[in-house]
Amino acid sequence: MTILFLNSSSYSHTPIDKWTDDTDETIICITPAKNVAEYKEKLSEGKFEIVAIKDWEDKTTIDIAINTIYNKKIFNKVISMREKDIIHAAYIREHFELMGQTISSAMAFRDKYVMKNLAIQNNIKVPIFSKVNTFFDVVNFTNKNKFPVVVKPRLGAGSVDTFIINNSLEMEENLRGVDLKNFIIEEFIDGSIFHVDGLIKDGEIEFIIPSKYINECIEYKIGKSTSSFTLEKNNILYTKLIKYTLILLKKFPTPQNTTFHLEVFITHDGEIILCEVASRTAGGKIPKCIEYRTGTDMNRTWFRNQLGLLTEENSVKREMLYGSIQCAPKHGKLTSIPKELPFDWVKLYEVYAKEGDFYQGATSSVFAIASVIVEGESEQDVTKRLNQVDEYIKLNTIYI
């Protein structure tokens, strides 16, 4: 069997040789040219073929390359794992009549306008919303609905180009210069935001992990670090969120083999309202927190499930709680950042910033100068430690 891997990620995120060391399947990895050197250095020839694409946004060039590949070597599966590749991969499957996630499924989990319409059809509560293509669509919505509102791309990710708008002046200031074609606008929901992550194999739920955001993803715009933590099983919302997730996944065209990342609002009176749901793995260090909790590497297992490969059951399941934080940069030239952290409850600390780098704040909710994972016995422990480590890094990172 030959596999086509539509893969815009670097090797560090998708070490496919380590994921498939027990199979001889041929894997053709199509990836941006900037990733090719690392893949060729790590992957053995023969089993893996690397195809470079100069401009990943040029879908036609990618399709031409894929068509050329198919004419020389028929592939049997198309795999993609990044959010921005999911719809494209579905179109490729349809053209070559291959099994896997369909276009309608990909759209339901990717296009926020399609997603929310489908939710309404299935009696799943969503914010009041409307599609946007021009500034006047925003004006019309705000004339009919009160501020604040949220404006964001239908196919967005990482809270990029997402705006919370509180009045007409902010509407003009924030949206000036923004191409609003294929955006969505919705009422602002006042409540807490939770995320629910899990794995599906052959149509069956392997696990579901509910978590709560401390700082909302969009707060990177005001310099706050994005952070969240896994919930205690005795938290009344733990079971409530799992039940909600099971209902939603049953009503949506959920792929047979996938990970998922669901975000919901819970209002002050306890009502759950859908924010969005994706048929892919969460960003940041959320997957690593889940790995510490369940013993499962979500992306490795998801990839192997799509190939029909057995994945050994990891018996390491911990009752400890975990939280992660993406430490947001400030403005200026970074001259110093801690090389290590003086806390024994830190499970992981990765530094991405380099001395001498210039920053103008974060560009998305997962953009960070460093990532940290902490553990604790209670939600209170984890929350306190996430805030403590965030403050420590801020105080000990120097900008000029």
TrEMBL record:
Gene Ontology terms, MF aspect: ATP binding; ligase activity; metal ion binding
Secretion signal, residue range per the UniProt entry: none
Cite the entry's keywords alphabetically: ATP-binding, Ligase, Nucleotide-binding
Cross-referenced PROSITE patterns: ATP_GRASP
Task: Tell me the domain of life.
Answer: Bacteria
Q: Does the keyword Nucleotide-binding apply?
A: yes
**Domain (ATP-grasp) ranges:** 116-307
Protein name stated in the entry: ATP-grasp domain-containing protein
